[in-house]
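Hey, I'm writing a tutorial for new members on how sequence and structure tokens pair up, and I'd like a real worked example in the thread rather than a made-up one. If someone can provide the structure for the chain below, I'll link this post from the tutorial.
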Amino acid sequence: MSQEFVIEAFPRDDQGKGASRRLRREERKIPAIIYGGGKDATPVAIWHNELKKALENEAFFSHILTIDIQGKKESVILKDLQRHPYKLLLTHADFLRVDKDHEIHVNVPLHFINEDTAPAVKLQGGVVSHTMTEVEVICLPQDLPEFIEVDLNEVEMDQVVHLSDLKLPKGVQVAALLQGEDHDQPVASIHKPKGAKADDAEEAEGEEGGEE
């Protein structure tokens, strides 16, 4: 993981809805909480625009983050983010402390490659259907991948790529697969467009009629 994200935070003493509203309105900060790691939860305040800008980077969601609370640094992952129902505003964030010796559960984005050049698409006119865009993985913090690559080059027409087909980095497991084979969900597939299937069916019927 090459990128590093450092978020500046401030201790937050006043809590409750009224205090949170004042924080957002007057100081342009949002309330957040840091919890886990066998320590007490720590309420903090974070600059709204700084966090909003960081969220524009997809990697932010699948990285170990550093929160700097006036010189005291915490290693965390983003666990939950609340947004205003209709304004483009963040309202609250939850961060989970991480320990290098304890596994974490994180949703990691899927990056699909060779979609346009896969023979089933380029030569046979197939269409790629994405069932998932991210997957929950379990790993130690130092093994957390920024993303998982899904190569569609060898996927044939009407073939489905499942979770068990993903090529995972060392030390990384897919959470769903630990629950059994029946949780081996589809990730992506290549199929003919619906109109093409109908045309094939009509053509087949025409050939059968011509044989009579």
